[in-house]
Amino acid sequence: MGSCAEWLSMKVFTAVHGNNLVYNTCWEDPRLDKQALELTGDDNVLVITSAGCNALSYAIGGAKHVYAVDMNYRQNATLDLKIAAIKELDYETFFKLFGEGRLPGVEKIYRDKLRKHLPEMSQKYWDRYVKSFFDNRRSTFYFRGTSGFLAKQINRYINLRGMRKGLNQLLNAKDLEEQKQLWAQFRDRFWSCTMRFIVNRDTTMSMVGVPKDQRKQIEKTYGQLVPFVQECLDTIFGVLPIQDNYFWRVYATGQYTRTCCPEYVSEEGFRILKDGAIENVSSYTNTVEGFLREHSDLKISRFILLDHMDWLSDKFFDALVNEWDAILHCATPHARVLWRSGGLDTSGYLHRVPVTVNGKQTTLEHILSYHKEQAAELHKLCRVHTYGSFYIADLLND
Known about the structure:
By secondary structure, the chain is α/β, with parallel strands linked by helices. The protein is built from 21 helices and nine strands. Helices cover 54% and strands 13% of the residues. The strands form two sheets. Strands 3-2-1-4-5-9-8 form a seven-stranded mixed β-sheet. The protein has a two-stranded antiparallel sheet with strand order 6-7. A hairpin with a 2-residue loop joins strand 6 and strand 7. It is globular, with a radius of gyration of 21 Å.
């Protein structure tokens, strides 16, 4: 029975990721990443694309070049459209597009100004979806894709239960004390039996990019998924200031504000990119290993691997081994690697990865120098706060 359930879960996850835009915004806090990365003008960065927000943030931060890599071409198409819009649009129009997530007349603007900057695969995608995603009275762009669709359904649930006023008050709390009080009032009404059921479904988790193997990492600590999500939300809304938490605001409202948005959407970030930094970002549809094999002469000093190693930790362990072999081939001496996990500890699978350094066989645990205290302190401040752990490590590969 268990193997059948796992097979079905994998089929659902594969169907979701293989046929849809999953992420319409990045779900990792670049404020923490940039502190951990200590970027300079000499750093080549590899990051898994997701929605491209953070790749743009690293370019704003002064990286030499940012290579955004994703298996899902739709994710790269999203970054490609952002790059084209930064090159061609004025800030006010750009903010309507990616700040408000809605731009009336977008189809003509896309045809006249943006399409020419896109690679063929991204052209085909946006030829089909640009109007329905960005010029639709019923939904903004941030209620599109599978993660956006789930956010929209949860918003419907909030509206049906008469909780919209309470949510708006929470998002607009004047200080942390008021926010804590409002969250205490909101919390119990939110966590109905219906919501617990929704959160605990594999289908729900697949829509936000959580495969079964990653769910297992979470359940090792929490037993079930619901207590983990409850603890996350208690920290987000009851401990950390909500005023600049654009990650949760956008899914609660469907749009950003001028003062609560990703760096690339802010006027200052937009200007830095438009003034030349945007030329330092490029996208590639491939696996991390595939990209590095195809660009074997490239030297990378910063790797941001998000949480995808959880995905490979069990049934795709050989792929994880091959990926690290490719990473070590392209990494500069003492390159820095960031990653996240749904669980509290990745050593159970990561330290078993065999590697070869200077012709000698060893394991990954022997060539990683962790910045544990810094990672722990930064993790506490994470505005997303849906990961169990955060890692910063330097490679001892010289």
